[in-house]
Specification:
The complex is a heterodimer.
Chain A: H1 5-18, E1 33-37, H2 41-54, E2 59-63, E3 68-70, H3 75-79, H4 85-88, E4 89-91, H5 93-97, E5 100-103, E6 107-111, E7 116-119, E8 124-126, E9 129-132, E10 136-138, H6 162-172, E11 179-183, H7 194-209, E12 214-218, H8 227-237, E13 242-245, E14 254-257, E15 262-265, E16 268-271, E17 274-277, E18 281-283, H9 285-289, E19 298-299, E20 306-307, E21 310-315, E22 320-321, H10 329-348, E23 356-366, E24 369-379, E25 384-391, H11 398-420
Parallel strand pairs in A: 1-2, 1-9, 2-5, 9-21, 11-12, 11-17, 12-13, 19-22
Antiparallel strand pairs in A: 3-4, 6-7, 7-8, 10-18, 14-15, 15-16, 20-21, 23-24, 24-25
Helix pairs in contact in A: 2-10, 2-11, 7-8
Chain B: H1 2-14, H2 28-34, H3 74-81, H4 88-96, H5 115-126, H6 160-166, H7 191-202, H8 209-216, H9 220-232
Helix pairs in contact in B: 2-5, 4-5, 6-9, 7-8, 7-9
Classes of the chains: A alpha/beta, B mainly alpha.
Amino acid sequence: MTLNRRAFLGSSMVTAAGLAAPMVLADGHGKPRVVVVGGGAGGATAARYIAKDSKGAVDVTLIEPSRTYYTCFFSNLYLGGFRDMDDLGHSYGGLAANGVNVVHDWAVAVDRDAKTVSLAGGAVLPYDKLILSPGIDFVEGAVPGWDVSAQNAMPHAYKAGSQTELLKAQLNAMPEGGTFVMVAPPNPYRCPPGPYERISMVAHHLKANNPTAKIIVADPKEKFSKMALFQEGWANHYEGMVDWIGADFGGDNVSVDPAAMTVSIDGEVTKADVCNVIPAMKAGRIAELAGVTDGNWAPVNAADMSSKADPDVHVLGDASQQGDMPKSGFSANSQAKVCANAVRGALTGSKVFPAKFSNTCWSLIATEDGVKVGASYEATPEKIAKVDGFISATGETAELRKATFQESEGWYSGITADMFG
Amino acid sequence: MRSRLAHAGLLALLLPAGAPAFGQAGDAENGQEIFAKCKGCHQIGADAVHRIGPHLNFLFGRVAGSHDDFRYSKSFQRLRNTGLEWHADTLDAFFENPRTMASGTRMSFRGLPDAQDRADLIAFLRHYSDDPANIPEADPTAQASDHDIDPAILALEGDAEYGAYLSGECTTCHQAAGGDDGIPSIVLWPEEDFVIAMQAYKSKTRAHPVMQMVAGRLGDEEIAALAAYFATLEE
């Protein structure tokens, strides 16, 4: 079905008329209530937009355990020395000052019949619409020998903050000529180019501080996003330093021993000085507890990001199984705006506009050598479907790569302002 | 090769029964039935190998005739040498009548004259190539829809609320507060300048892939709504 604006507005207005009056979903308890779980690119954006656009007509509560949110996007640049940790940290004060009730606690249960969210601290929050944006958790047993109890020995650093700082500290402490091993994740996972930007940033650091060190990537995949661009960059900037072992050569047969600091790749055991294990991923636990997952992810309807299991629950960002969009901060932010518009419309009778989605992923390969890939998407009855896209070309000029990097810095400023106000 | 086959098998498992796969692109379930015409020569999915014709896993984005381990006809070797890649549009042309693109091959298939059948077959085959969710540069899974707005609702032109909604796609990169580090400010532009710039991106007169993509699917009144919104935006 091709959705045009007239049809969409028409159906929206019919729905609003059928509800007889705005705020009918408040169900006699005053203002309609939205609870958002997870304060990252999806949740913070959704909370901010609903509060901002409803102008006080909707009560918005954001549940997020962290007082300071460290963006996973751009955290690789911290490893490469291009960003300080403080640059990645953002408080929720801007959201609170603009009408979002920010609660720093863990959501531990969802009762979809009673429409409540329970917090670890004991509070029970009622909702009319629930938005889950919990990001990712790791699949237990995905990498034999590794679990979260081993993450200090072999950090994942795929949830930014202390893990990122730990990996940087280990990188700094690597012995001369040492070996850095990454165990890359299988599809699907957060940020398809992320592990390979990380390899670039680690290589940049080592080239400057430990030029005889080696990097091994054990990868269960045969290929990865921006592969030609990264491999060109590694050859140009870090010749001989990076050894990528794909599935064809046993990269999909890996186990680790954190106590011995060894990695077995297709039976060959390698001693690692630093080992970055990025396990297989799944939706953040609360999505599973809410009963909206099917397998590892939460299926959603493309038009408004509502759960296929419950129209009053929406799932955003990495946790959602939505179709073609990669799991990225940009995607989550884009999905959040579509969701916010739909939720506000359902609760207040405001106009609901057709869903439009877009994404761009920038990656830094070396100093001012930035590349990007992006696409536009639209809602189909089955999924969010990709309709157009672009990618940086190999062999681009240094000036263009510099401009691309500067563009990514601008995007970081833009999206964090868009998330946190 | 093991993971590629596993990937193809997983895709097959993920194909929901009774659900068309790629929206406007076609009905993959019907495409699976049409594929019966191809099965005598081509395999696809887990365990697929070359037979009379090459296997069709990871077809999208591939240069025609480019399997190193398959012995192609001279006609397909010539096709390969032209650099032709398999995408939805080239596959559509090929499936309509294969001989228009590669005559004199072992392939006896006469073609699919019905456009919907071709779209359905393409939707089915698409499941066995890279998923854009994992590799964002992978081929699209849908055709761009027409975003033109019916003239009857042109009364919404310049609708500030609609402009504000649409601006959400802009403010992921452009700062609503007007900052211009790395990405230019678009706040407080004269409306005419905004419209001229966006139309130039739309027609690809202005070069920037992100902006060409974003502007390319905005209708005239949507651009006007954005112009009206940003012209007065102050925070």
